[in-house]
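General statements about sequence and structure are easier to judge against a single worked case. For one protein, we set the task of working out the structure tokens from the amino acid sequence alone. This step matters because it turns folding into a mapping between discrete strings. The amino acid sequence and the backbone structure tokens for this protein are reproduced below.
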Amino acid sequence: MDARSALETAARHANRGGPVPFVWSGAQWTTPGGEWRDWPLIRRGMGEWLRDLANGLGSAESNASRRTELRYAMEAARDGMDSAESDEEMEFHIATLGRLRRDLEAIPPALVLDDPAVVHRIRDVASEVESASDARATQLLSLASQFDAFRAPLNDPASWVKRLGAAPYGVHVRTSAVWDAFATAEPVLARSLGTVTGKRALFAAMDKRFGARRKLSGFEGWRGVALSDAS
């Protein structure tokens, strides 16, 4: 339960820890761009990312104190502007106020954790991912893969269709060829959707872009489609 709550919190605040170095593709851990890396590098990358996130979450209290200090200083600068007796003094307070405002805006937004102790649990998970047995690290990363923040984005079939090139109107392709090309280009998405649902969504997107399917030389398909441009 501790590991799950830690990873759930990490997933919820993933944008605070910098880009996730590895994501679950549905079959294996890869870089966000889909490149494969060996297991030791994946473990180290995910462990370091989790530790960096924990450090960022743990700084929330000091950020709150710094935010309060800056607001008090800004009030003092405004008071100084009201009582300035020369243009030089006014310009000094205006510049000070501007600098303080920039410093305030640079502090990450206020964060309230339901359970502050979860920061320690995230650090524990980071250490285990990096140094525990392969079996334990695999178990933890398998748990992480259940959360969307650690999953490679699954594109809708329509996004694949948008990448298709246009061909001369006389060129036509079969529905079966379109499905085969899609399943080759997006194997994880094709598997997750399933053949029936996947074909329904894919063919609807094809109909929207290239016109309704029609019988072409004895088979169903579309005109003007260049499948090779989508690979």
